[in-house]
Structure formats: C-alpha cells, structure tokens
Automatic annotation (TrEMBL):
Matches recorded under Gene3D superfamilies: Ribonuclease Inhibitor
Signal peptide as annotated in the record: none
Protein name as annotated: At1g61320/AtMIF1 LRR domain-containing protein
Domain of life: Eukaryota
Species classification: Eukaryota, Viridiplantae, Streptophyta, Embryophyta, Tracheophyta
InterPro entries noted in UniProt: At1g61320/At1g61330-like, F-box-like_dom_sf, LRR_At1g61320_AtMIF1, LRR_dom_sf
At1g61320/AtMIF1 LRR domain location: 90-475
Length: 483
C-alpha cells in the first residue's frame, strides 16, 4: 500500500515538473502580468509558480465585474461588502512590491452602508502606491454625499516619481506644494473632483511632462491657469459650472475640447497651433463660423455641438483653409440646415462631413408639406469632400435641400450615408443586441417620409460613382408596428 502511494506521489510530482518547466521567477512574473486580472487569479490557484508571482502581480484592477458581483450572485445591499472583503483578501497577501497599475472602479452603491470601501481605501493605497507605480485610477463612488478625500501625502516622498497616469473620480483632491514632483506624469484626469484653483496650480507646477489634462464637473475651479508646460498637447474641460476663464501658456497645445458657456474667457496663447477642436455651447455653429477662422486658422478637425441655435450660419469670406474633418450636432430640427453650406464654402480642404440632427420639441416643416420648389444655393464645387454622413435624417425641408446641394455641388463625393434610425444601433450592428432600439410610431412614420424624400428628391441627383447608403428601420424588429 505504501509503495503504491509513493508511486502515485512520484507520478504527480513528475506531472508538475512537466506542466511547470523550470524558469526564472522573473519570467513567470512577466507571463503572469500579461493576463487579465480574473485569469491571473485563476491560474494562481492551480499553479505553484503563479501562486508565488501572484504576490507581486503588477496590474491590479478591481471592480464588480472583476469579481463577478451582481444581483444574481450577491444580494444588492451586500455587493459592496463582498467587494471590500475580496479586495482586502487580495491585498493582504500581496507584497506591495512592483505594482505598476492600480485601478479601482465602484458603480453599485445603493445606500449609506455601501460606503464601507471608502473606509478601507486609505490602507489599500498605502500598500500599492510606492515608487514604481505608473498608473493610478480611482472611481470610489460613495452614497449619501460621501466623498473620498484622496491622501496627497502618498506622493510626498518619491512614490509618485514614476507615475504616468492619474485619474480620480468623485473625490476630494487637495494637493499642496508638499505633494512632491510628479516628473513622469503625462495624463491627469479629474472628473467630479473637488479641487480649487490654487490646488490645481500646485500639481500642474510639478508636472513638467504632462501631455493631457482632462477636467469634468470640477465645480470649484473658477480661473484655470496652465503654466508653460512644453509637452501639453491636449486640454479637455467640460461642464465646470463656476469657470470664468481659461489661461494657458502651454506653447504646443494642439487639441482642445471645451463644453462651457461662450462668456468663459479663453486665452490659449499660441492658438495658431491648435489643429483639433471640440466645442459645446449655445449657438456653437454661429460662433464657429464667425470667430474660429481668425482665432484658430490651422484647424484640421472641428466638432461642434449646439444646445440651441438661434441664428443661421452666416455667409462670410473667412476660411478654414486646413479643415479636413467637420462634425456638427444641432439640437434643433427646425434649424435652416441649408445655411450650413457656409461651412463648405469656407473649407476648400474638407474631406469628411458628419451631421447629427438631435430630435427636439419643434417639428420641422416637411418637404412634402411645402409646395414651393426646393431652394438651390449658388453653386460652389467641393473638390475634396469624399464622405458625408447624416444621422436622424428626416423629410425636413431644409435638410433635404442641404443634401441635394451636397450631391449636386460635390464632384469628389464617394459615399453618402443617410440614417433614418436616429443614429441608434441596430440589432445587426452588435452581437449582444437582440433587437433594435424602440422607435415610436411617429418616428417610424417620419422614417417612411424620409425614405420617400430620398427617392423623390435626392437619389435622382446622385451620380453613379457615389455609394448611396440609406439606413432604414429594421423590418424584422418593427414588423408589427403600424405606421
């Protein structure tokens, strides 16, 4: 009996040697680091070599998805307690050495008892934030107004010396001059973060290699001052409610995204270098056409989202000589879309145009309800425009007129896409989508009118060299709808 047991043990040991070849531990650690978090945990349970490397796993990502926590696996009011316990167990057995990425995402917070993770977060960060960490992402959502106060003292020594990416969401962040030098930081993202002007200036002053700054819903910032950061190329500022001015001395800023009122004073230094702009505000189309050609003459990509547009785009002599990509989103279906021809006349290098027509309360005049002939603008040929995409295409008279103008005046046009589905995904677009997004009977009826407008006014004018794509409601998902 003993001899038989020894043979089985020897056989088992031999199999282990075969399944786990003799490799240096740093090789095992490297292989282990390439696996996603859940897979890395699984192999650590069945492999002695991986179990050892698990203690120094460099990429730690924690979320409900990581642990498979949802209402099917855990009671709703216990999800965060389960989450907190699991993170505790993992970090308890982690050496804290060699962590490069720490990513914590919390979404399922239902009541005040779910704030338990906030009580443990300081101790977790003490374990993982050491010299060598490169990416730190925190979204510690709390309930009942609870916000996490990020301990800036973590970076007071040299712990943040190699940090490249810092992303904080829903927390308090109050850095001072004692925060230390973040000399490797390239990306700073602050969303729904309480931070004041002077505190932000402190961290920017020590971030010499910063390439991207992203601020969203930072309601305490009034005057955003950006020092002379040589590497800063991308600035994103969105919905900071108290913001009154942005002053940037960064000489190489090339991309600017800003969602905010027109009264916010912008001083971007050498704005001539800006090649990509996203602007969201009231009367954005009018602002873009009247102000931007002189302020940012070297734009190559322009995206504008207008929440309301009170005035049509004017015809002006100013030009966007380098503009290649133009996206316009308008929140008014009764807008005179034909006036957007002004952008085409001003953009001789334009190659791609996308128009998003956002459904509004005001119904536009259908081309079938107005007996007068469609308007035609003075013909200005587009020599480089190749692709045009219109989302939520309808029978709105001015929208049909704009499309006809594009078809007739654009000899370089290769592809025209008219989407009557409001731009929503269809069941055929996504394997996880079983059916199309629900459309009302009124929306389906308008889609039918839009298809008729295409057949009557647009298709006869389309050259045989142009690919015309008309996206209509799915016949399968809407087969039972009565128009």
């Amino acid at each position: 009996m003993t001899a038989s047991r020894d043979k089985r043990r020897a056989s088992s040991n031999q199999q282990d040697e075969i399944s786990e070849p003799s490799l240096p531990m740093d090789i095992w650690c490297h292989i282990h680091s390439l696996l996603p978090m859940r897979d890395a945990a699984r192999v650590a349970c069945v492999s002695q070599a991986f179990a050892h490397s698990w203690r120094c796993h460099p990429n730690l990502t924690f979320s409900e998805d990581t642990f498979g926590l949802d209402e099917n696996t855990c009671q709703e009011d216990k999800i965060m307690r389960c989450f907190t316990n699991k993170v505790d167990q993992i970090l308890k057995h982690h050496s804290g050495i060699g962590v490069k990425t720490f990513n914590l995402q919390v979404y399922s917070v239902y009541d005040e008892k779910d704030n338990c993770h906030l009580l443990r977060l300081d101790s977790w960060l003490q374990i993982v934030v050491k010299r060598g960490i490169e990416e730190l992402v925190l979204n510690p959502l709390g309930m009942m107004g609870a916000k996490y106060n990020f301990p800036c003292s973590l970076f007071s020594d040299d712990a943040g010396e190699l940090l490249q990416h810092l992303s904080l969401t829903v927390c308090e962040f109050h850095p001072t001059i004692k925060i230390g030098c973040l000399k490797s930081l390239t990306t700073l993202q602050l969303h729904i973060v309480h931070i004041e002007d002077g505190e932000l200036e402190c961290i920017l002053a020590s971030s010499f290699t910063l390439e991207k700054l992203d601020l969203m819903y930072c309601s305490e910032i009034i005057f955003l001052k950006i020092p002379c950061l040589q590497w800063l190329s991308c600035l994103e500022v969105s919905t900071c409610s108290k913001l009154k001015a942005i002053e940037s001395k960064a000489p190489n800023l090339s991309s600017f995204r800003f969602a905010g009122d027109l009264h916010v004073k912008l001083s971007l230094g050498k704005a001539l270098k800006i090649k990509e702009l996203y602007r969201q505000c009231k009367d954005a189309a009018y602002y873009a056409r009247t102000e931007l050609p002189s302020r940012m003459p070297n734009l190559e990509r322009l995206s504008i989202y207008s929440q309301t547009e009170a005035v049509n785009a004017p015809t002006l002599p100013s030009k966007f000589l380098h503009l290649k990509y133009l996206v316009i989103a308008l929140d008014r279906m009764d807008y005179d879309f034909l006036s957007l021809v002004s952008f085409f006349d001003a953009s001789p290098s334009l190659e791609t145009f996308t128009l998003d027509v956002i459904p509004g309360l005001r119904e536009p005049v259908s081309i079938f309800d107005d007996p007068s002939a469609p308007r035609m603008m003075t013909e200005h040929h587009q020599n480089k425009l190749k692709s045009v995409h219109i989302n939520n295409f309808s029978s709105a008279r001015t929208l049909v007129e704009l499309t006809c103008h594009i078809v007739v005046s654009t000899k370089s046009l290769e592809c025209l896409t008219l989407d009557t589905n409001k731009g929503w995904p269809k069941c055929s677009d996504d394997e996880e989508t079983d059916s199309c997004f629900l459309m009302s009977e009124a929306a389906l009826a308008e889609a039918e009118r839009a298809l008729s407008a295409v057949q009557t006014y647009i298709k006869p004018k389309v050259s045989s060299t142009v690919e015309l794509n008309v996206l209509e409601p799915c016949s399968q998902c809407h087969a039972d709808e009565e128009l």
